[in-house]
Design goal:
Elements lengths: L1 H21 L12 E17 L11 E17 L2 E12 L14 E16 L3 E14 L2 E16 L2 E14 L7 E16 L2 E14 L8 E19 L3 E19 L8 E17 L4 H7 L8 H10 L2
Antiparallel strand pairs: 1-2, 1-12, 2-3, 3-4, 4-5, 5-6, 6-7, 7-8, 8-9, 9-10, 10-11, 11-12
């Protein structure tokens, strides 16, 4: 699976590079701009469907927790077809469960990550190709972790549509004890965004990651996989008091994680797994450019997967 992800990513980057190279002599009506944005969100994180049965384990079942976060992005042109973008984001969760002795259980506590994107062969009419990397950390199940990640990415533009692909590798280290986080993983992500108007869009995405989950048992390398899917609707509300025209959004995020480790109360030797669903509402403010679609093509064009959150899924199943 890891080799297949790598081959698909290289094929996508090569194809886009060839397309952009052929379009390099096209007349440009827009140039890259200095632009930035900040968005914040609040919502609810619903967790359930733990397998195997959690009747005798310190795990949540069908509970909901408040979550809140934000992200700042800045894009700087570094040439006619080259730009550098910096992202910093965080998310906090209110889940702190005390199931009593012998252990306490925390759901996703908090995450933060910083990402740098270097995009080249950028053409506002066709797309871009680039690389990205970053680091982050957070806390889950009363344990702190540190994460680093690297990868490649591309965007393709077709009329009112933007298509984005990302693929790469991340690794995780527990900072205060044994390593039980999702780590040593390859991942891929696909995004499709449709602009109904320059400031209104629908986005759909799906991600997959495959690696290992170290634990305290005899087997130190349990196979671990994660699938995430989501949708987002952005629009503008005009003439709000004090703040004026404001971009707002509604976002859904689904999340499934599975370890081949067998739980202590499982009689059927089923792998451990869980599912969560997150619903978020938020607002976005930006500078540079006249619309969100213009940002997409010549300014702040990219986002990044929630890699630190993914890494913490292993600790949740610990």
């Amino acid at each position: 699976m890891k080799k297949l992800l790598g081959i698909l990513a290289l094929a996508g980057f090569s194809a886009l590079g060839a397309q952009n190279a052929g379009a390099a002599d096209l007349d440009r009506t827009l140039g890259l701009i200095i632009s930035g944005s900040y968005e914040s969100w609040h919502g609810v994180d619903i967790v359930g469907d733990f397998t195997p049965s959690t009747e005798d384990e310190d795990l949540p079942e069908d509970d909901a927790y408040f979550t809140s976060g934000g992200e700042a992005r800045l894009s700087l042109p570094a040439g006619e077809a080259l730009s550098i973008q910096q992202d910093v984001k965080y998310e906090l969760n209110s889940a702190h469960l005390d199931r009593g002795d012998p252990s306490d259980f925390d759901w996703y506590g908090f995450q933060w990550q910083a990402t740098t994107h270097v995009s080249f062969l950028r053409n506002p009419d066709t797309g871009l190709v680039g690389i990205f990397g970053g680091f982050g950390g957070g806390k889950a199940d009363a344990a702190n972790n540190g994460v680093y990640f690297v990868g490649g990415e591309f965007q393709l533009y077709s009329g009112d549509w933007t298509f984005q692909g990302q693929g790469g590798y991340f690794d995780t280290r527990r900072l205060d004890g044994d390593n039980e986080f999702f780590r040593d993983a390859f991942f891929g992500r696909a995004v499709a965004r449709w602009y109904m108007t320059p400031d209104s869009s629908l986005q759909f995405e799906v991600s997959y990651a495959d690696g290992i989950n170290d634990d305290e048992d005899d087997d130190p390398n349990d196979e671990f996989m994660l699938v995430e899917w989501g949708a987002r609707y952005d629009t503008m509300i005009e003439g709000l008091p004090l703040v004026g025209d404001t971009n707002v959004f509604l976002r859904y995020r689904g999340h499934y994680a599975e370890s081949d480790e067998v739980g202590p109360n499982d009689l059927d030797n089923d792998p451990e797994s869980f599912t969560s669903h997150t619903i978020l509402v938020g607002a976005n403010w930006h500078f540079g450019g006249n619309s969100r679609m213009e940002h997409d093509r010549i300014g702040v064009a990219l986002d990044s997967p929630d890699i630190v959150r993914w890494s913490q899924a292993g600790e949740v199943l610990d």
